[in-house]
């Protein structure tokens, strides 16, 4: 973690201390934000971070500030763990950052409770170069735009090519492989003394499995699970099958819980394959010198078009509804810069996913590094195999569902509960959270 500074305040202290600190220095409450004596408007941008991401975003902030002398953007970073508790505390006090880094999991949670500005309601943010389906990723059911994607990604497998080579295992063809091929590759890596694969036991790796069975994560109205218990049971059986074919032990899963991805066993060359978001590959590759590549999700049939993959907004920009008008106007200009300006996209690279403005990406892509170019090519080429529409923001109440999955699947891997018990616990918990 960086040495604490004004820019990294969010990374220090507890939620209560943070709320008090920002009440004294942010927004329209008379401290940090607002207009200065020289006519400038100062705004705060808060995000969950990592060393590589922080470096990129601070560079983009500096570039914006240099080009916009009437606005001063200050940035604050915190690790994912604790970010949402802190944001909840600040938002409850009407004192959130002016520009809020948002996850699709919480867009409706905050937007429907009047904490986020409807981005359709202001000026300064040009969305004309973004596809309508991309803009819709941040919209509510009544078309209020609570967030705009910072990037697009997809949930995938990644392979450590160096470890495959060391183990003497051929990397499967991800355009034709099945789940049996995946298990076989994991087992072969384990036979060579490594861990074959992690599980990806949360809801993101469940979604393609559901799509392959013609089902969805949530019902259309977002009030219940959109899948049958039998399909969930088959997914949990799949996790146990992987465990018997070189998957991580339950202890390894427990030890890695909450570990930053750049510190994970995969990043340190101990695991052959991992489930991850496509935009995370750059952070991992910066740790391990081995060649790495993204891979499509295995399918039931060996046809990539039937793998159930989809694009999603990797991360989003939102603007606080509690900031004053000048701050909101400045925030709109900053978000516009981050979404549309080739300089910003060049500085950020693929760290937050493939930028949604394809025109600006083309202008910036000539300067991309090798790994960023691989991510861009993979996500772009994947379009031909996508047969599932990108889901909109997750329904209100869904924020705890990932934790429920993590808890129940770990209990399953420890053999403390059966597949039937885990299925019942997960299914009833989802409906309880959403109902």
From TrEMBL:
<dbReference type="InterPro" id="IPR050490">
    <property type="entry name" value="Bact_solute-bd_prot1"/>
</dbReference>
<dbReference type="InterPro" id="IPR006059">
    <property type="entry name" value="SBP"/>
</dbReference>
<protein>
    <submittedName>
        <fullName>Extracellular solute-binding protein</fullName>
    </submittedName>
</protein>
<dbReference type="Pfam" id="PF13416">
    <property type="entry name" value="SBP_bac_8"/>
</dbReference>
């Amino acid at each position: 973690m960086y040495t604490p500074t004004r820019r990294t305040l969010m990374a220090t202290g507890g939620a209560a201390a943070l709320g008090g600190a920002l009440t004294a220095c942010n927004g329209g409450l008379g401290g940090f934000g607002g207009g200065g004596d020289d006519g400038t408007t100062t705004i705060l941008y808060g995000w969950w971070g990592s060393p590589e991401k922080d470096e990129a975003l601070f560079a983009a902030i500096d570039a914006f500030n240099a080009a916009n002398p009437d606005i001063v953007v200050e940035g604050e970073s915190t690790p994912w763990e604790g970010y949402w508790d802190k944001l909840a505390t600040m938002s409850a006090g009407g004192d959130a950052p002016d520009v809020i880094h948002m996850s699709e999991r919480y867009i409706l949670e905050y937007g429907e409770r009047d904490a986020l500005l409807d981005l359709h309601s202001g000026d300064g943010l040009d969305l004309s170069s973004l596809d309508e389906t991309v803009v819709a990723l941040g919209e509510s059911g009544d078309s209020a735009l609570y967030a705009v994607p910072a990037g697009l990604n997809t949930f995938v497998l990644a392979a450590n090519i160096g470890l495959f080579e060391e183990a003497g295992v051929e990397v499967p063809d991800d355009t034709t492989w099945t789940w049996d091929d995946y298990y076989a590759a994991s087992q072969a890596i384990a036979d060579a003394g490594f861990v074959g694969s992690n599980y990806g036991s949360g809801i993101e790796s469940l979604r393609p499995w559901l799509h392959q069975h013609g089902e969805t994560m949530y019902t259309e109205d977002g009030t219940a699970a959109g899948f049958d218990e039998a399909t969930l049971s088959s997914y949990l059986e799949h996790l146990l099958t992987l465990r018997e074919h070189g998957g991580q032990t339950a202890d390894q899963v427990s030890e890695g819980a909450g570990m930053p991805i750049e510190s994970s066993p995969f990043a340190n060359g101990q695991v052959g394959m991992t489930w991850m978001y496509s935009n995370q590959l750059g952070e991992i590759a910066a740790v391990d010198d081995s060649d790495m590549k993204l891979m499509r999700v295995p399918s039931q049939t060996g046809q990539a078009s039937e793998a159930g993959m989809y694009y999603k907004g990797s991360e989003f920009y939102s603007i606080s509804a509690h900031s004053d008008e000048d701050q909101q106007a400045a925030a709109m200009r900053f978000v516009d810069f981050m979404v549309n300006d080739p300089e910003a996209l060049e500085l950020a690279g693929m760290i937050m996913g493939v930028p949604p403005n394809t025109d600006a990406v083309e202008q910036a892509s000539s300067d991309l590094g090798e790994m960023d170019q691989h991510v861009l090519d993979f996500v772009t080429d994947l379009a031909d195999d996508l047969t599932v529409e990108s889901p909109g923001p997750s329904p209100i109440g869904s924020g705890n569902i990932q934790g429920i999955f993590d808890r129940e699947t770990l209990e399953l891997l420890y053999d403390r509960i059966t597949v039937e018990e885990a299925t019942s616990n997960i299914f009833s918990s989802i409906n309880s959270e959403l109902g």
